[in-house]
Specification:
By secondary structure, the protein is an alpha/beta fold. It has helices spanning 13-40, 54-60, 76-85, 124-134, 153-165, 173-176, 184-193, 214-222, 226-232, 238-253; strands spanning 44-47, 68-73, 93-96, 109-115, 135-146, 199-210, 258-269. The chain binds S-adenosylmethionine.
């Protein structure tokens, strides 16, 4: 189940997301998707749920100059941030779009990308059908999903700390949505229901590095829809809740530069 607040990335969220969360957890996976893209040498690429553009920056750097690259997201404030950070924003076609209802003709692209976005779709099979429709024969859909929260230690520690701050009604966004869809059997069955026949699922482990314990706390508490959940539970304030999460991270991982494990799955469907 995706709560209505879970898909709202607006207000201060896009900037904090891009400044804090992207370098912490998204950049390494974006580089992985860019390498997979380069290996396919596609002529037309559609990216959905592109957020603040970490994949767009990595992929634009490896695409042939003649290849078309259309970058979309449900929330225009995320795309605004993405366009403002792109080296050559005119290289990319930016367009607000719901992945469940893509405004493109059938057989328009040969590659569709989606980084850590499908867990936000209220009907994934419908979104995957849309992927299949806009991809031509032989096209590829490459996307990634997070493993369970216990395998993603900074997210897990922040969630545990906030459960102590709000014991009567713990904010559950991270466990429910980004880390709530880790059953690889379901990925396969949903893709097959949408008409994909060849599905490959690969776990990808990485190490998340933060300059200090405040970084993961700010990233998750203020740069994701978790912020909206915390603000709805006031008091304590967003700043106090973030400070409590910082203390918990310091206690578990130490001070100064800290590292933690993360794991995602990269799914390729043809
Ligand atoms: C965790 S962010 C991932 C963003 C980006 N791909 C990245 O790697 O940083 C999830 C994104 O999904 C977008 N989103 C949520 N629901 C969507 C939908 N139905 N269609 C398209 N994008 C959606 C949000 O606006 C947000 O930018």
């Amino acid at each position: 189940m995706v709560d209505a607040v879970d898909k709202v990335f607006a207000g201060s969220i896009p900037d904090v997301y891009d400044d804090y969360l992207v370098p912490l957890v998204f950049e390494q996976y974006a580089n992985d998707l860019a390498q997979r893209t380069a290996a396919l040498n596609p002529r037309g690429v559609l990216e959905v749920a592109a957020g603040s553009g970490v994949v767009s920056r990595a992929v634009a750097a490896v695409l042939e100059s003649s290849a078309r690259y259309v970058v979309t997201d449900l929330n225009p404030p995320m795309l605004d941030r993405a366009a403002s950070m792109q080296d050559d924003p005119d290289r990319v076609e930016w367009q607000a779009a719901d992945a469940l209802d893509l405004p493109f003709d059938a057989d328009t692209f040969d590659l569709m990308l989606c980084q850590f976005g499908a867990m936000f779709f209220p009907d994934r099979v419908r979104a995957y059908r849309e992927a299949r429709r806009v991809l031509g024969e032989g096209g590829s859909f490459i996307f990634n999903m997070w493993d369970r929260i216990e395998e993603n230690e900074f997210a897990h520690e922040v969630t545990r700390a906030l459960a102590e701050v709000f014991p009567d009604d713990p904010p559950r966004f991270l466990r429910r949505t980004p880390h709530g869809h880790f059953d690889t059997t379901t990925y396969r069955s949903e893709l097959e229901a949408a008409g994909f026949s060849d599905v490959d699922i690969e776990p990808v482990d990485a190490i998340s590095v933060a300059a200090d314990p405040a970084v993961p706390a700010i990233a998750y508490c203020q740069g994701t829809p978790l912020r909206t959940e915390i603000e709805a539970r006031y008091p304590p304030s967003l700043e106090e809740a973030t400070a409590r999460a910082t203390d918990a991270i310091r206690k578990r991982f130490g001070d100064g530069v800290i590292r933690s494990r993360m794991r995602g799955f990269v799914i390729t469907a043809r």
